[in-house]
């Protein structure tokens, strides 16, 4: 008989709600800057901007974009019931904007020499979901 209780003792996974307007705009090829301006609370466009800035070698701009996406993601996680810890599964597509922003923040922090922040982000990403860390962080 199942009681529905988490027998491992940890909090249940947090699943962010889908954001079809953002997803549709990005899928249609809209520039992430325009999507971020239209939907500033969404993490994914900020993560994409950060990733693009990292590719272009602009680590400071990447850091700023990633930090914005990260904080917007924390706000969304809290609204979804997250209490500061517990799984944020990579397999749940709407979580990926936050997780990508966190990974971009880790890479940007590492690039500008902010080692403590990079380590904190690595730990946090692994705590959210080791699969996300494997997928998003360089090995």
What characteristics describe this protein?
mainly alpha; 62% helix; globular
Describe the fold and architecture:
- The chain has 139 residues and is mostly helical.
- The chain is 62% helix and 0% strand.
- The radius of gyration is 15 Å and the shape is globular.
- The model is unreliable at 1-5 (pLDDT under 50).
Name the poorly predicted regions: 1-5
Mean pLDDT: 94
**Helical region count?**
7
- Mass-distribution shape: globular
Structural class label:
mainly alpha
Number of strands: 0
N to C succession of SSEs = HHHHHHH
| Rg estimate, integer Å | 15 Å
Question: What summary fits the major beta sheet?
Answer: none
* Proportion of residues in β-strands: under 5%
Percent of residues in helices comes to 55-70%
In whole angstroms, the N-to-C terminal distance is 42 Å
Short description:
This protein is mostly helical and 139 residues long. It contains 7 helices and no strands.
How does the SSE layout of this entry go?
Blueprint: H1 20-27, H2 32-38, H3 43-55, H4 59-79, H5 96-111, H6 115-128, H7 130-136
């Amino acid at each position: 008989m199942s009681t529905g209780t988490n027998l491992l003792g940890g909090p249940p996974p947090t699943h962010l709600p889908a954001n079809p307007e953002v997803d549709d705009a990005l899928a249609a090829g809209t520039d992430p800057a325009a999507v971020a301006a239209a939907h500033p609370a969404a993490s994914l466009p900020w993560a994409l901007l950060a990733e693009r800035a990292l590719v272009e070698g602009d680590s400071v701009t990447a850091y700023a974009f990633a930090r914005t996406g990260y904080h917007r993601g924390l706000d969304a996680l809290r609204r979804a019931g997250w209490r500061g810890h517990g799984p944020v599964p990579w397999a749940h597509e709407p979580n990926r904007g936050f997780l990508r922003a966190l990974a971009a923040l880790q890479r940007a922090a590492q690039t500008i020499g902010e080692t403590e922040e990079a380590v904190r982000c690595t730990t946090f990403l692994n705590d959210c979901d080791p699969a996300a860390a494997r997928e998003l962080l360089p090995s």
